[in-house]
Specification:
By secondary structure, the protein is α/β, with parallel strands linked by helices. The chain folds into 4 domains: 36 residues, no CATH class; 149 residues, no CATH class; 195 residues, Glycogen Phosphorylase B (Rossmann fold, 3-Layer(aba) Sandwich); 270 residues, 3-Layer(aba) Sandwich (Rossmann fold), CATH 3.40.50.2000. 45% of the residues lie in helices and 14% in strands. Strand 17, helix 20 and strand 18 form a beta-alpha-beta unit. Helix 1 crosses helix 17 and helix 4 packs across helix 31. The chain is globular.
Length: 764
């Protein structure tokens, strides 16, 4: 979620008033804002997407809740020591959190372990361990519409009789100390992005948030006029019309068997009725196609922790497979491929399959990704129910990612096209009219230059490095992962370095290359990549032959509040994943909206950015999905590229020989070995096209006016990538609710009973 103070002031229309009031108290608002800790309660794009969605849902007047876990420790703080990533605990609640309100009156029990007893009256889950879920509410204000929604985060608490009710006669002290075991559930965020780690505590977290949330939803449903009907048989008939639950990836997939358990075991609905309601309630968003990221929980673990849920999953699977066997008799391989249970050394539950079978809608997050989902990853399921599969291209909130982080540009745009674009970003197309307006071109360039100077000062203060603000700011910030190919950027840096040294007199367009992002603590290769970047920076930044032509900076502890500083100052946005691996990306959209140009592959939302702006207004290079597929078919041979490309050979040899690690020449052996022998993401295959494309970038940067005109064309085409548009599509195609642009009267205005200004219907 990042910081809340400035976002709240902007959405409430109070920023100028607060700035002025604080100034009169002899304080500086910006200094005050810097004191607030980021709420870093998710990993990469998936968590930030949820935050943008909450902002858009409130702005569109949807009655929507964001549910999650109130981690005591969020994503770790990253320190760079001697070029290596070191993790520190993110004690973000140390000074308290003024935005949250604990709601102990809504505390709910969550059950674990135990066993199942079957009788004539149905199944009973008994002898369980209970953990209490304590909700904390954070307000989510819409933009200037007096709507305030709720983000409800659950914290784990041990019941007061924890470990004291059973045969634990003597050791009272130990029993109280053991309360920590239950409360550990909400202690810390697992820091993996795009990687599945099948740990018991993680499964506990996933079920914890799901069980508490579903109880909360059902309590609210029963308290409403829809749930309070006399006939037990029809109580839940209207449930899917009143409640829509969107599963953000498979992490909350246990919600499907949990809702079935509530309906069948507790509310005593017949299975078919319960299943119909469940399917119509859930929809599933897929966020990745990387096989190592897909959740596959061991059956043994689920059986121990959630025995009743395993039985329900088996029953769902049995009926699912019966259905397929009826449609495709004797096709045992299809049954194996489509089963929720994977046979093998250890039997596992494929959570994505569970989500697809248990939802009425499945979507990818960019056109190209949704196609891959349909035609490759889940092709059998799409063949069965093609109407279930949709696309919803991701978006970003223009409130945080333009108004808040780039007020200079936001104001400049408002002068030209008015202020309405903040709620309807498609209006940015009106900027096309000014693409040849010399004054506007100069003003856009001036705002960018001011943002660069401000960021350069920040870097000098934090990193003690002198930055040339007229150099091209070439920025690559995102989680460190092999598929995102920070290594390819690194090879380009080394290539530029070698060119400067080979011919120091030759004209070179000065660059400041900024790379930032966190590596999962257990991801060895990602940590080696960080070390390599820092080792290269050490050499480049201290070579007198290079001077101010090339500087390399690794940006420590990349997070939302740092993104808000670096993105407005960026000239070139690096979006260089291997085609077919980045589901969407959202950083790409933030840079586009803030006046950077994009160098990128035809992957994720880059494809649609090129479609909107015109491919000639992005620097697109490298293999397309088809080329990658063809190369896989032929077999990727890294050695071929190394032998054919002298500059690539030189760069790789320098890494291999210890040129960047003289004290330990073998330091980067693992990296080099990976690049030659098991590089799934084919860095060498795109190197030549990337370097050539970068030459075109430098060439255009020399012509400031032509560069800025391309920037304006990009900003004018960024309207599609508002999360408001994304949420309108979810609302229309999946949730079946109507966004409302009604401005609720403020609380100080008496509501006129005669003319009801609020809609009568209840949204989902």
């Amino acid at each position: 979620m990042g910081r809340t103070l400035q976002n709240t002031m902007i959405n409430l229309g109070l920023q100028n008033a607060c700035d002025e009031a604080v100034y009169q108290l002899g304080l500086d608002m910006e200094e005050l804002e810097e004191i607030e800790e980021d709420a870093g309660l998710g990993n990469g794009g998936l968590g930030r997407l949820a935050a943008c969605f909450l902002d858009s849902m409130a702005t569109l007047g949807l009655a929507a809740y964001g549910y999650g876990i109130r981690y005591e420790y969020g994503i770790f703080n990253q320190k760079i020591r001697d070029g290596w990533q070191v993790e520190e605990a993110d004690d973000w609640l140390r000074h308290g959190n003024p935005w949250e309100k604990a709601r102990p009156e809504y505390m709910l029990p969550v059950h674990f372990y135990g066993r199942v007893e079957h009788s004539a009256s149905g199944a009973k889950w008994i002898d369980t361990q209970v953990v209490l879920a304590l909700p904390y509410d954070t307000p989510v204000p819409g933009y200037m519409n007096n709507t305030v929604n709720t983000m409800r985060l659950w914290s784990a608490r041990a019941p007061n009789d924890f470990n004291l009710r059973d045969f634990n006669v003597g050791d009272y002290i130990q029993a109280v100390l053991d309360r920590n075991l239950a409360e550990n559930i909400s202690r810390v965020l697992y820091p993996n992005d795009n990687f599945f780690e099948g740990k018991e505590l993680r499964l506990k977290q996933e079920y914890f948030v799901v069980a508490a949330t579903l109880q909360d939803i059902i309590r609210r449903f029963k308290a409403s006029k829809f749930g309070s009907t006399d006939s037990v048989r029809t109580v839940f008939d209207s449930f899917p019309d009143q409640v829509a639950i969107q599963l953000n990836d498979t992490h909350p997939a246990m919600a499907i068997p949990e809702l079935m358990r509530i309906f069948v075991d507790i509310e005593k609905l017949p299975w078919d009725k319960a299943w119909d309601i469940t399917k119509r309630t859930f929809a599933y968003t897929n966020h990745t196609v990387l096989p190592e990221a897909l959740e596959r929980w061991p059956v043994d673990l689920v059986e121990k922790l959630l025995p009743r849920h395993l039985q329900i999953i088996y029953e769902i699977n049995q009926r699912h497979l019966d259905h397929i066997a009826a449609l495709f008799p004797n096709d045992v391989d299809r049954l194996r491929r489509m089963s929720l249970i994977e046979e093998g050394d250890t039997k596992r539950i494929n959570m994505a399959h569970l989500c697809i079978v248990g939802s009425h809608a499945v979507n990818g997050v960019a056109k190209i990704h949704s196609e891959i989902v349909k035609t490759q990853v889940f092709e059998d399921f799409a063949a069965l129910e093609p109407e279930k599969f949709q696309n919803k291209t991701n978006g970003i909130t223009p409130r945080r990612w333009l108004l808040l982080c780039n007020p200079g540009l936001a104001e400049l745009i408002a002068e030209k096209i008015g202020e309405d674009y903040v709620r309807d970003l498609s209006q940015l197309t009106k900027l096309q009219e000014f693409v040849d307006d010399d004054l506007f071109i100069r003003e856009v360039a001036k705002v960018k230059q001011e943002n660069k100077v401000k960021f350069a000062l920040y870097l000098e203060k934090e990193y003690k490095v002198k930055i040339n603000p007229s150099s091209m700011f070439d920025v690559h910030v995102k989680r460190i992962h092999e598929y995102k190919r920070q290594l390819m950027n690194c090879l380009h840096i080394i290539t530029m370095y070698n060119r400067i040294r080979r011919d120091p007199a030759k004209l070179f367009v000065p660059r400041t290359v900024i790379i930032g992002g966190k590596a999962a603590p257990g991801y060895h290769m990602a940590k080696m990549i960080i070390k390599l970047i820092n080792a290269v920076a050490q050499v480049v930044n201290n070579d007198p032959m290079v001077g101010s032509k090339l500087k390399v900076i690794f940006l420590e502890n990349y997070r939302v509040s740092l993104a808000e500083k670096v993105i407005p100052a960026t000239d070139l946005s690096e979006q260089i994943s291997t085609a077919g691996t980045e589901a969407s990306g959202t950083g790409n959209m933030k840079f586009m909206l803030n006046g950077a140009l994009t160098i990128g592959t035809m992957d994720g939302a880059n494809v649609e950015m090129a479609e909107e702006a015109g491919e000639e207004n992005l620097f697109i290079f490298g293999m397309r999905v088809e080329d990658v597929t063809e190369l896989d078919r032929k077999g990727y041979n890294a050695q071929l590229y190394y032998d054919r490309l002298p500059e690539l050979k030189q760069a790789v040899d320098q890494i291999k020989s210890g040129f960047f690690s003289p004290k330990d020449p073998n330091l980067f052996n693992d990296v080099v070995n990976m690049l030659f022998h098991h590089d799934r993401f084919k860095v060498f295959a795109d190197y030549e096209a990337y370097v050539k494309c970068q030459e075109k970038v430098s060439e255009l940067y020399l012509n400031s006016k032509a560069w800025t005109k391309m920037v304006i064309r990009n900003i004018a085409a960024a309207g599609k990538f508002s999360s408001d548009r994304t949420i309108k599509e979810y609302a229309r195609d999946i949730w079946h609710v109507e966004p409302s642009d009604l401005k609720i009267p403020p609380p100080n205005e008496p509501r006129d009973a005669g003319q009801d200004k609020t809609p009568n219907g209840t949204a989902a």
